[in-house]
Amino acid sequence: MEILPQLIPCNTAGTLDRLFRIRCLTSPDRLAYRYYDRESKSWQKVTWGEMAALTSRFQQGLQNEGLKAGDRVAIQLKNSIEWIAFEQAALGLGLVVVPLYVDDRPDNTAYILKDAGVKVLLLNDDRQWQALLKDVDEDCKLRRVIIVNSKQEYGEEGMARALQDWLPSEPGFLQERGGDPDKLASIVYTSGTTGRPKGVMLSHRNILFDAEGLLKKIGVDDPHTLEFLSFLPLSHMYERTIGYYVPMMAGASVSYARSVQQLAEDFQTVKPSIIVTVPRIFERFYDKMQQKLAKQSIISRAMFRLAVYTGWKNFKYQQKIGWFHPVILLNPLMQKLVASKIQQLLGGRLRLAASGGAALPEAVARTFVGLGVNIFQGYGMTESSPAVAMNSFHRNIPASVGEKVPGVELRIGENDELQVKGPVVMLGYWNNHQATSEVMTADGWLKTGDKAEIKDGMVYITGRIKDILVMSNGEKIPPVDMEQAITLQPEFEQALIVGEGKSYLSALVVLNGDTWPHLAQEHGLDPLDPESLNDKKLQSSVLKKIATALHDFPGYAKVRRVHLTLQPWTIEDGLMTPTLKIKRAVVVEKFKKEIEAMY
Length: 599
Description:
By secondary structure, the chain is of the alpha/beta class. 36% of the residues lie in helices and 22% in strands.
């Protein structure tokens, strides 16, 4: 095979499995992945050549299962080299991959397995399989379950096998499917905020075209210097395209974080140049900074604010969206004294953070951008592979989600809805023609459900068509914007605004567990007593803090009642999606009685 340049274009690759094979053949000795081995307590390196050998072993295992092209296989595994090897092995045999969120509820996983007709499932551990067993019924087509981190003995007669017993010991010839790039490659189930998930059908071309477009947006000078740190789940297209296929296409390496809880340590070890993240990660970082600043001297707080101010002014001037101001002359000094210390917390080599999944609050964006952290907001959805717009070094306006990805068409449709057309748009929903027809226009545009405006080529998301609350007086409220403003206050971890058809707004608020003891003591309450949350004076105080947070919103957007809790809403309890969006309808149903009490 001809040796290709280090960047492998979409048309050269053709299919996802051929992209992988070309990368392994042209860069066999280059670092591909790093992961933390818990037994040796050390970081391990894996080259592309070693990945090819591992993938060929997985491919032999799948061939032994008697599968045929088009059959579905699923992965419910933490980000790892096994995740990559299993997917590439499957794609090379013409199989369709169904990625599953590793901590999804068993009943939801069972529903997807049945709906997609999955025949082989790769699991993380024995606990997952035991939890899933009770929800897998006789109509499920599952014939083999492979468990990566197994501590049990599984006989050859049963459905489950430990990976070490299932995987052939010697590598073989690595096959590639080749063929039509527009064939189905993956079914990705959207973890929507309402109802059962729908299976988004994505082709090889869908994903490769988007990855190449994003590479053009990001720009790659020397792939050898690019180190991705991966911590969002590969089951989500956002991480899968940007944090998996983009580096493969560029010839960059990826390190798999141990956990979100150990992320701060992993930043110091890996020293990444690129991360794919969601706003909540930076919001938490912002909250912790604010808490630390509150304990420091007036001079330290003033220095921090000056560093953010001068950095922000300099950023706007460099981006040609602001005038020169003399204070910019102080920026190099402020970067050295203050900003560099924040940058070191992120490893010191971070070139950019691609942020998506939700809007990044302006105060958070301004702070980090002012401190020299390049955050590129982007926009997309699973149905568009996923990214359709992103900011860039050339043009970065934090209030927007950037310019369109090359090759993608955008337009504003009815009700100011952003609509998408191009090679990134899905093939449709699996076994759901009605849902497909509802999300596509008659002339072939994908309806995003988000309101937007396009100014000077930049896309600005202005709201969600279905997420607008209409009060009894006809006033329309954007709840997500209000919730973001509330949770920027250090006392509040999560918030949800309610009031559809009501004369006033109320809020469900999860208090920050770290700041709760101090808040309780301020009001003479016992932080260990659940009844303290119902204290009228405490609730009045919280409402005042919420009013302060919402001072920029219209007067009618006022929260008059509040229900407080200390139990966070999580992915595990089904109240949040994998990208940390609150499942509004599910939370409202769970707190139905508490909401009724506020009215």
